[in-house]
Amino acid sequence: MNRIELKWDYTEEDINAFIDVLYPDDNAFHYINRYVPENLGRLDKETARSYLRININNQNIRIGGTNIWLVKHIQDNIFIGFAVFGDFIRIQPNSF
Predict the structure, then answer these.
(1) pLDDT at 13 over 60
(2) Which secondary structure element, helix H or strand E, spans residue 7, and what is its range?
(3) CA distance 28 to 39
(4) Bigger pLDDT: 43 or 92?
(5) What angle, rounded to 10 degrees, do the helices at 12-22 and 45-55 form?
(6) Does the pTM exceed 0.70?
(7) 16-20: Cβ within 8 A, 24+ apart
(8) 3-state SS of 26-94?
(9) Cβ atoms within 10 Å, residue 93
(10) Taking 50 as the threshold, does the pLDDT of residue 21 lie above it?
């Protein structure tokens, strides 16, 4: 398994690409919403984007009560996915 590391100095372009990869449909936020308790509601793209912008330099990124960690490959710095509750969820590098 490839080694991964957390990276906190994401640019606005990184954030936008992250959102667009995860949420190609404004109403289909499967990667995040399946981990968010229903009583917290569901996120739309702009809500998720604002959370990322506000919290991108924190130790974690909280979206709807869920901790999201953006993950990049430690050697070539290619975005490969994100982790929720410690479980790594892979996104194909060529889709970023």
Answers:
(1) yes
(2) none
(3) 18
(4) 43
(5) 140
(6) no
(7) 16/49, 17/79, 17/96, 18/52, 18/70, 18/79, 18/82, 19/45, 19/48, 19/49, 19/52
(8) CCCCHHHHCCCCHHHCCCCHHHHHHHHHHHCCCCCEEECCEEEEEEEECCCCCEEEEEECCEEEECCHH
(9) 13
(10) yes
